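Late entry, zinc ion complex.
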Amino acid sequence: MNKIIKALLDDNKPETGQKACEDNWDLSELIPIPKFPVKCPFCGSRKMLIRNVTAHQRIDSPTKWRVIVSFKCTICSHITTHGVVVTKDYVDKMSSHHPDGVPNFSHRQLRQMFGFEEQHEEQK
Ligand SMILES: [Zn+2]
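Prediction complete; structure with ligand written out below:
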């Protein structure tokens, strides 16, 4: 078998993935917060903003719940995505803070939830 295909389809053990997420993400907040510096892999900038945060259920995985955290580089616009293993309780906690009861937050919703005031006028 092609070595690259074999490596890309390697099966990560559930406990390994879960531990990596617990080690690298702060799950004490409403959304996963990276414990590592967020840096653009394309241009190297550290001016990355959370773009959106969305939880979903993986049907075919032993670790069923993920929070997808996307960051956008303010310099080159590259978008990165991380899939953080969480528990159902974590997803339920996220949902309980959303006005529509769903575990999905946009950048603007998060700014509002964390108490930032809007700095920009809406474009018309
Ligand atoms: Zn960049």
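DSSP finds four helices and six strands in the chain. Will revisit in the morning.
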